[in-house]
Amino acid sequence: MDQNTINGLIGGALLAYVIPKLSPYIDKYLKQAFGFLLNTVLKPLKGYFRKKQLVRLKEFRIARVNHSAVTMQVVRAHTYFLLFWGVIAFYLNLLTEPAFPAILEKSFVFGMLLTSPIYVFELLWLSADHKAKKLVKSRGQLGLR
Residue 44's pLDDT is what? Predict the structure, then answer.
């Protein structure tokens, strides 16, 4: 074996022995540091996020008993899915043009900015799909016809 392999094995063995011994002290320090951070910095934001979650939960509970609202959410998810694939097809068509790949190769950031509609429609579709699945599942648990 060469020297680098031996050094790696010895270093790995030392780390495997030392890290479990130091872990309780590191955990205690991290709890103190993050406890201070959570109590002083993030606690005021907790109320805001809880209020937003309560509003979403109320809207969800109202919508789940309305068959038309559930259907509308499923249709919205399918529409975003079709828009997502439509944008992909559009960009695949653009890639066959000789000027578009050159623009993408010129600047990575500009290329990401140009292709951002793909990511926007993907996020919209995933969000709407998740909400539609939750509504359908919740409606099924209610036992409504």
Answer: 76
Which own/partner pairs from 133-141 qualify as long-range (CB within 8 Å, at least 24 positions apart)?
Answer: 134/60, 135/60, 135/63, 135/64, 135/69, 135/70, 135/73, 135/74, 136/70, 136/74, 138/60, 138/64, 139/64, 139/65, 139/67, 139/70
pLDDT of 143 over the 70 cut: no
The C-alpha atoms of residue 89 and residue 92 are separated, in whole angstroms, by 5
What are the tens digits of pLDDT across the range 64-82?
888 888 889 899 999 999 9
User: 3-state SS of 41-110?
Assistant: HHHHHHHHHHHHHHHHHHHHHHHCCCHHHHHHHHHHHHHHHHHHHHHHHHHHHHHHCCHHHHHHHHCHHH
CB atoms within 10 A of CB 108: 9
On the question of pLDDT at 23 being above 70, the answer is yes
